Amino acid sequence: MTHRWSKAWALILFCAAVLPAFPVNADTTGLTSTAMPTPISDQQYLTGSFALDRHLDGFEAPLTSTGEFTLSPSKGLIWQNLKPFPDTTVMNDQGITRKHDDRTFETIASGARFHQFIALISAVLGGNWDPLSDQFTITPAKTATASNWQVTLAPKNNNGLSEQISQIIIKGGEFVT
Fold first, then answer.
1. pLDDT (tens digit per residue) in 39-77
2. What is the C-alpha end-to-end distance of the chain, expressed in Å?
3. What is the CATH number of the domain that holds 80?
């Protein structure tokens, strides 16, 4: 029960910090075309695996979660955590929903503002840097090539994200991997 609510509050806090300043026009002129993957369109979908390290107070080693995701910019994101705690979360225009083992769903958060949250997550996973540059300092790796690049996103200090996220490292080739 506590794990579920802490996850919900973390997502809500992230949304609250990111959404008020969601950019209309963003400057990505500092990025080379090498560090720019092909963004996915609304008609495409993207699947992949993830590893997420959470650094918790009182623990020396990070808690590493691994799993799989499916992203459709027009339909939302399915985030399936496999280890250490199996969990499936669906994020779409209607909000954030958790799927239970008995195939029932529980709404964790909802509202119109979550459409922008999905757009932000879609931008990260889809390799579209424009919606991210207002909230993050975007730094491409110096040795990037078209088939092997890395971009580091560091939250800008004025948006409150730096208290929750130290950095996001995105790697890929033609697409985010």
1. 667 778 888 888 888 888 898 999 999 999 898 877 888
2. 32
3. 2.50.20
Contact 114, 95 (CB under 8 A): yes
DSSP state of 176: B
Host domain of residue 46: 2-53+60-172
Q: Structural domain tally of the chain?
A: 1
Which residues on adjacent β-strands are paired with residue 96? 91, 109
Read off the amino acid at residue 85: F
CA–CA dist 47, 71 (Å, integer): 6
Query: If DSSP codes are grouped into helix, strand and coil, which group holds residue 134?
Result: coil
Name every residue whose Cβ is closer than 8 Å to that of residue 80 and which is 6 or more positions away in sequence.
67, 68, 69, 87, 88, 89
CB count, 10 Å around CB of 33?
7
CA distance 68 to 49: 4
Q: Which pTM does this prediction carry?
A: 0.55
Residue 177 belongs to some domain of the structure: no
From CA 36, how far away is CA 50, in angstroms rounded? 20
Tens-place pLDDT, residues 76-108: 889 999 999 888 999 887 788 998 878 888 988
Return the structure tokens found at 131: 């919606």
Is residue 130 domain-resident?
A: yes
